[in-house]
Amino acid sequence: MIHQYKNNGFNIVLDVNSGAIHVVDDVVYDCIALYEDNSKEDILNKLKDSYSKEEIEEAIDEIEELKANEALFTEDQYRDYIIDFKKRPTVVKALCLHIAHDCNLACQYCFAEEGEYHGRRALMSYEVGKAALDFLIANSGSRKNLEVDFFGGEPTLNFQVVKDLVAYGREQEKIHDKNFRFTLTTNGVLLDDEIMKFANKEMANVVLSIDGRKEINDMMRPFRGGQGSYDVIVPKFQKFAESRNQTNYYVRGTFTRNNLDFSKDVLHLADLGFKQISVEPVVAEEKDSYALREEDLPQLFEEYDNLAKEMVERKKAGKDFNFFHFMIDLEGGPCVAKRLSGCGSGTEYLAVTPWGDLYPCHQFVGNEDFLMGNVFEGVKNTDIRDEFKSCNVYAKEKCKDCFAKFYCSGGCAANSYNFHGDIHNAYDVGCALQKKRIECAIMIKAAEAMAEAE
Amino acid sequence: MKHVKTLNTRKLQNTVVKGGCGECQTSCQSACKTSCTVGNQTCEQTK
Questions:
Q1: Are residues A208 and A276 located together in one domain of the fold?
Q2: For chain A, how many structural domains are there in total?
């Protein structure tokens, strides 16, 4: 499968099944588009007004050389491999701990409904958290690296339990030969020196929620009384990011229909000095006024294109920053098994409520149809687990012929469920944006490679 | 090559043999929590 496109002056050809990426000139670009369905004579004939015979023959020679090297028109040879891979015994390697189903902000788009997840306010007790870590260790098989995200609501509302659980985890990892990677997701309101110091010692990554420009952030991320949160959180996040040497964190925002010009928010965060930035499309129900619509896509595509171009320029000027959705590792990226087997929700990744119930992921918490068990008794509803286990790109009709499948792994199961009532489908607006982001990310790599070559 | 510049030398098909150790980060734990982004994850074996 080939995906070819033009972006920012580059002709880019992606050989989907090998992952090879080529920047090509016009003649090769046009020949590749015709190659599979035309003979050499037909290609020569169809392109004779644009290129000389020698140019076309040279281009076809190079295409055939790439093909022989399995870097172009490579066959998909992974289907049976992935199906077998997913049959392996399930191990759990990551938990999202809902330390607090409560929040000190009242963000308009919160899927957790101001932290309460369609239920009651609650804080996780140390006993429940401890049982969750025990459950993780007991179900992790031979996996050494175990991930625990302290999530909410707002986890700093229950920070003593976070600290106690980290201490327990550090003690247990020695006994069981595991390595806990703790992460914290916070809105920043309660951040202080003590929390920062603790997080810098113990947290492999921190995710700091902020949407961008003050007016945008304050519209969607107010306190319960309606006041904006921007002025409270920005200085704290700047200090926190510096204290982590501008690594191992993300300032993480959500864009909605209220800021379709979200590239300005990304650049605003960069101008505030942040080097690790993620600003992502909201997932909302169609009825919500701030939900993204299909008709917004052309503008959103333009925003991604403009952001990508600006990032290329800023890199040249030594003012670069990372944008999570444009990060792509062409040489050291994940293996095929990781790329095609899905995100791991419901199998290797589970969410834990304050009272210890297990759900396939944080997005399903509160939907009783997806209650899988609890940390004291383990996974009881194995039907849910098996349904998620069967979820991979080959099980999704929409993904089979999509070039992005090696980069999104079939997309988010919760998004699919929210829009189609089925985890084996895909959220179409999300897919369109994902594909655009991959194209931009590859363009940035092409621009960097060309700049290096000059 | 005169007409083509290839950006990467690693081929996905070569990761079938040694891949799938499962030690890498779960994608949703990295930052997203709403999208699935595996293409930017780092392989634990090549760190």
A1: yes
A2: 2
Q: Specify if A81 maps to a domain.
A: no
If asked whether residues A35 and A146 sit together in one domain, one would say no
A152 vs A156: CA distance, rounded Å: 9
The ipTM, to two decimals, is 0.92
Residue from A23, A275, A335 whose CB has the most chain B CBs within 10 Å, to mutate: A335
Q: Do B16 and A81 touch (CB under 8 A)?
A: yes
Contact B26 A406 (CB under 8 A): no
B27 contact residues in A (CB cutoff 8 A): 343-344, 409
Neighbours of A285 (CB within 10 A): 8
- Could you tell me the residue range of the domain that residue A108 belongs to? 87-454
Kindly list the averaged pLDDT for each block of 10 residues, start to end, along chain A of length 454: 97 96 98 98 98 98 97 92 85 96 92 77 96 98 96 96 98 98 97 98 97 97 96 98 97 97 98 97 88 97 98 96 92 86 91 97 94 98 94 89 91 91 93 96 95 85
Phi, psi angle pair for A36, to nearest 5°: -70, -30
Residues 6+ apart with CB under 8 A from A201: none
pLDDT tens-digit map of A251-268:
999 999 999 999 999 999
A239-252 pLDDT tens trace: 999 999 999 999 99
Whether residue A9 lies within 8 A of chain B, CB to CB, comes out as: no
Interface membership of B36 toward A (CB under 8 Å): yes
pLDDT digits (tens, 9 = 90+) for A104-157: 999 998 877 777 777 788 999 999 999 999 999 999 999 999 999 999 999 999
Asked which of A42, A75, A108 is the last residue of a domain, the reply is A75
**A102 and A29: one domain?**
no
Asked whether residue A252 is assigned to any structural domain, the reply reads yes
Say yes or no to pLDDT of B47 above 70: no
Based on the fold, state whether residues A101 and A181 are members of the same structural domain. yes
Q: Is residue A37 in a domain?
A: yes
Query: CB–CB of A78/A336 below 8 Å?
Result: yes
Identify whether A153 is part of a domain.
Answer: yes
Q: Is the CB of B16 inside 8 Å of chain A's CB atoms?
A: yes
> CA torsion sign, B16 to B19 to B24 to B29?
positive
Residues A56 and A112 reside in one and the same domain:
no
Give the Cα-Cα-Cα angle A328, A95, A100 (nearest 5 degrees).
110
Give the mutation candidate from B7, B9, B41 for the A interface (greatest A CB count, under 10 A).
B7
